[in-house]
Design goal:
The protein is α+β, with helices and mostly antiparallel strands. The chain has helices at about 10, 30-45, 80, 115-140, 150-155, 170-185, 210-220, 225-230; strands at about 20-25, 50-60, 65-70, 85-90, 145-150, 195, 200-205, 245. The strands form 2 sheets. It has a 4-stranded mixed β-sheet, with helices on one face. A 4-stranded antiparallel β-sheet has the order 5-7-6-8. Helix 4 packs antiparallel against helix 7 (about 210-220) and helix 4 crosses helix 8. The protein is globular, with a radius of gyration of 20 Å.
């Protein structure tokens, strides 16, 4: 990972910087940094470049959930610098902090959640699914017709746990996620190049520009509004929906 991420464009297919960051309890962060430094030395002695690396230490106290991001090299980029060091991720409410969900949204229990909590959880799942789609688009060999499978996106968004999740509500959830993504992507230069099917989404990337447009649309999607639409049923699709349609 240190070697592959030293060149973000080769590793992810997009321009920019790639960091190797391990998330772990705050008390373990120092030892992890020492381990990564030893690995960096081995990598460079072998003749390879190393990516910037770091740790994201998590801790909970009476104020809420905190994250402490440390990097091996300081960054001058504002969006990176502002999240370095100790940042309050989620304030405690009545002494309770929001957990970091492995499965952030569970359609089998959504009806029992407070609307604001349901919207928050669905928004977290959307962000993970969209990032999974960004990675798939980023490594495609343009020109290409990229097929995004609902099963694959959900599995990546839930760290593989969705494969063990036996719930009939998953079918509607995957349809909702793909249909919403088709609406987000089927704009501008990609209009007419996005095909939505019940279990998959096909995106025709005819050029590098198409790829960048698709990635930008996904990254700029308003997940808060999409989460509200989804959690209030506006994106609901019956399991018996037509097998395919075009956006």
């Amino acid at each position: 990972m240190l070697v592959a991420s030293s060149d973000a464009e080769s590793a992810l297919g997009v321009a920019g910087d790639a960091f190797v960051v391990y998330t772990l309890p705050a008390e373990d962060a120092e030892l992890q940094m020492q381990c990564l430094e030893e690995l960096r030395i081995e990598v460079e002695e072998a003749g390879f470049e190393s990516a910037v690396y770091g740790t994201l230490g998590l801790e909970i106290d009476a104020d809420g959930l905190w994250a402490n991001l440390r990097l091996s090299h300081p960054s001058e980029k504002p969006h990176i610098a502002k999240v370095l060091d100790r940042v309050l991720i989620s304030p405690a409410v009545d002494g309770d902090s929001r957990p970091l969900y492995l499965i952030p949204y569970d359609p089998t229990t959504a009806d029992n959640q407070d609307p604001s909590e349901r919207s928050y959880c669905f928004g977290q799942l959307l962000e993970r699914v969209y990032l999974a789609a960004v990675r798939a688009l980023g490594i495609a060999h343009v020109p290409d017709s990229v097929v995004l499978l609902g099963d694959d996106l959900l599995r990546e968004a839930t760290f593989g746990l969705s494969t063990k999740w036996q719930a009939k509500e998953l079918n509607s959830l995957k349809i909702n996620l793909l249909r919403g993504m088709a609406t987000v992507l089927g704009k501008r230069e990609l209009k007419g190049k996005v095909q939505f099917h019940t279990s998959r989404l096909e995106v025709l990337l005819g050029s590098e520009n198409d790829r960048q447009v698709a990635i930008n649309l996904l990254l700029k999607a308003n997940s808060e509004q999409l989460a509200l639409d989804g959690s209030t049923g506006q994106l609901d699709v019956e399991d018996g929906a037509d097998e395919s349609s075009s956006s």
